[in-house]
Design goal:
The complex is a heterodimer of chains A (about 110) and B (about 120). Chain A is mostly beta strands. Helix content of chain A is about 0%, strand content about 60%. In chain A, strands 2, 4, 5, 9, 10 and 11 form a six-stranded mixed β-sheet that branches. A five-stranded antiparallel β-sheet of chain A has the order 1-3-8-7-6, with no helix packed on it. In chain A, strand 4 (about 30-35) and strand 5 form a beta hairpin. Chain A is globular, with a radius of gyration of 14 Å. The chains are: A mainly beta (about 110), B mainly beta (about 120).
Chain lengths: ~110, ~120
């Protein structure tokens, strides 16, 4: 399978900005998704990138560099409710089969 | 309200028993998926289905079976052949299976936590 690498855990302060990085193997890349998952709950969709650049959605932004195999999720004005795991998932294409590979997730703790 | 439902939320099973997890969606999505999630691991794909009466094995299909008789429903059976079935099971659906424009964005149900006693 394809490796998706994300930091295991991060801690940030309420009101601050945090950047969660994701690196992946570039061969066959065909899109990248970010999900938020609160403990014991289902993942919820945050963003999708397929072209290079920054996608902004309110307090959340996601960046992609296809040549570098790199993405990040930027969370601004952190709130306590942002404490969750953030999952990076990469769509790979090839051989007529479908494959979306998930990273192990980054557990973000927001502290007062 | 459109969405994906899974039932039950918690399920306990004795070793050697088969159990079926329900997944229903009213989003009119063509594609549906089953994942399992274990602590410290990423989501792993068990099975997926692009259309009714068709489904494909994912990375960890051994010990599982599925059916897709209706567009709205994609039940997963965990058989006694599954060596380590205790996990959090997530069902997802997307408008299409594979689309560079993002129509394959997957939306998840609330999950079923299966514990084998």
């Amino acid at each position: 399978g394809q490796n998706i690498d994300q930091p295991t855990e991060m801690t940030a302060t309420e009101g601050a900005i945090v950047q969660i990085n994701c690196t992946y193997q570039t061969s066959g890349f065909n899109g990248l998704f970010w999900y938020q998952q609160h403990a014991g709950e289902a993942p919820t969709f945050l963003s999708y990138n397929v072209l290079d650049g920054l996608e902004e959605k309110g307090r959340f932004s996601s960046f992609l560099s296809r040549s570098k195999g790199y993405s990040y999720l930027l969370l601004k004005e952190l709130q306590m409710k942002d404490s969750a795991s953030y999952l990076c998932a990469v769509r790979y294409s090839g051989a007529g089969s479908y494959q979306l590979t998930f990273g192990k997730g980054t557990k973000l703790s927001v502290i007062p | 309200d459109g969405g994906i439902t899974q039932s039950p939320k918690y399920l306990f099973r004795k070793e050697g028993q088969n159990v079926t997890l329900s997944c229903e969606q009213n989003l009119n999505h063509d594609a549906m998926y089953w994942y399992r999630q274990d602590p410290g691991q990423g989501l792993r794909l068990i099975y997926y289905s692009q259309i009714v009466n068709d489904f494909q094995k994912g990375d960890i299909a051994e010990g599982y079976s599925v059916s897709r008789e209706k567009k709205e429903s994609f039940p997963l059976t965990v058989t006694s052949a599954q060596k380590n079935p205790t996990a959090f099971y997530l069902c997802a659906s997307s408008l299409e299976l594979d689309d560079g424009g993002g129509a394959d964005t997957q939306y998840f149900g609330p999950g079923t936590r299966l514990t084998v006693l």
